[in-house]
Amino acid sequence: MESEKSNKIKVVLLSSIAEDLGWNEKFLTIEGTQMKVFSVWNLINSNLPQDNIIVSINQEITDMDAMINPDDEVAFMPMFTGG
Amino acid sequence: MESEKSNKIKVVLLSSIAEDLGWNEKFLTIEGTQMKVFSVWNLINSNLPQDNIIVSINQEITDMDAMINPDDEVAFMPMFTGG
Amino acid sequence: MRWHLCQCLPVDNLRIKFKILEETFNPYKEFELWEKVNKNSANSFFIGRVRPFDQFGNDLKKLEIIHYKGMTENYIKKYLMKISEKQDDLCIFLLHRIGFIYPNEPIILIAVSANHRGIANKYLQEILEFTKYKVPFWKKEWTFKGSSWVKKNTDLGFEL
Amino acid sequence: MRWHLCQCLPVDNLRIKFKILEETFNPYKEFELWEKVNKNSANSFFIGRVRPFDQFGNDLKKLEIIHYKGMTENYIKKYLMKISEKQDDLCIFLLHRIGFIYPNEPIILIAVSANHRGIANKYLQEILEFTKYKVPFWKKEWTFKGSSWVKKNTDLGFEL
Question: Please, are residues C106 and C25 in contact by the beta-carbon 8 Å criterion?
Fold first, then answer.
């Protein structure tokens, strides 16, 4: 049974992606119970190249095809350059 | 022209070889102008196995077939175990 | 073999110590403190320091490192726990800076001890590559003209 | 690249420092002193300490290391000079004990710095293997029952 109420996810941007889009985190309301990471990426941004973007759901690295549930935290980040 | 006077070489033993033979260094008088390292080894010792013995002439590693000249320093040592 | 029991400072009772630091540190003091409680015979250490130049060769004012709070710590912890299970004598110590770091200040410290030199060196290098490529850290270089994110890690300096 | 100029303590004006020591030393103080004059970004260190057991598993009283005075120094020096010529940013520091060394005291210290971590780690390991297998040093283990020469070096701890 589909719930009619809208649901929130937290979107986190890091490093150059946060700087390019001008924000660090945002709560988004998603329709239905799930959506693909890729759909969130499209929702927040239509210009940045998708190559070499690392994505995580609830701080676990995953890919653009993974599904996000309500209350999840999804993050988009560039390649790591630490150490 | 062969010289009739005898010539001296210095023989150095190291580590377990010095301990096995009971001395650290000795001057030996050699007949003629040259002799093989192997001959010196035989001269000083007839019991120790020759395997894995490192030899040097004037502190440069060489082998049992190398020739020793008067005033040279020849040394016999076991495998290195430093570091 | 009695000396397999390592007395490292424990994190969750393991032979692991790591920390993400917002302030600079003295790596020698850290090594000394760490090795005091660690009786292994082979001890390998690494210190990475900030180069005084940026990726384009300009004078560097400072380096900035950011992390993804929570995720970064968890990734390091899980990885170090996995490594420490491979050898029961391994002790691991990792410090990584975040925030602003000035030329020649340390960014990263790694210490690994074991009963064999090969083991200590091998895992030190694995941990170093891991922190460069698999952990959420990002570097931004500040010069006297502006700033830019580092796009690519420095290489090993030779072909493998 | 200006940071290729290394300011190591010079031996014969080279980027090499080494010494054979008859007394114990504090490796952290040595590292600190060495790195102060050395502005490379990648710094690899190794400390080898005396195990508290001999090769047969008995309690060790002390380790004795002897060298072939003159030859040992020359072999190390020639080798380190050859290594330092391979990379113009390499700085190398080597200390090796001789005489009596007690459990947990340092036998060997190696420090190598370069502009790339891979280079520093690679040459540190090469120098360590070199001092184990190619330099005239010999170890004798003293227990409370007697003494015996070490016949074979400890292995790396894993198969290459």
Answer: yes
- Name the residue facing C118 among D2, D43, D157 (closest C-beta): D157
- Structure token digits, residue B25: 């260094």
Rounded-to-integer distance, Cα D149 and Cα D61, Å: 14
- Tokens representing A61? 């690295």
DSSP chain C: -GGG---PPPBTTBSEEEEEESS---HHHHHHHHHHT---SEEEEEEEE--SB-TTSPBEEEEEEEE-TTHHHHHHHHHHHHHHHH-TT-EEEEEEE-EEE-TTSEEEEEEEEESSHHHHHHHHHHHHHHHHHTS-EEEEEEESS-EEE--S----SS--
Name the nearest CA neighbour of A15 among A51, A54, A73.
A54
The partner residue sitting opposite D32, judged by closest CB among C28, C45, C154, is C28
Please tell me if residue C83 touches chain D, with a CB cutoff of 8 Å: no
* Residue B63 DSSP SS3: coil
- pTM equals 0.90
Q: Count other C-beta atoms under 10 Å from residue C64's C-beta.
A: 16
**What's the full length of chain D, in residues?**
160
| pLDDT, one tens digit for every residue, chain D (160 residues) | 232 334 444 555 568 999 999 999 999 999 998 888 777 999 999 999 999 999 889 999 999 999 999 999 999 999 999 999 888 889 999 999 999 999 999 999 999 999 999 999 999 999 999 999 999 999 999 999 999 999 887 777 776 5
> Is D46's CB within 8 Å of C120's CB?
yes
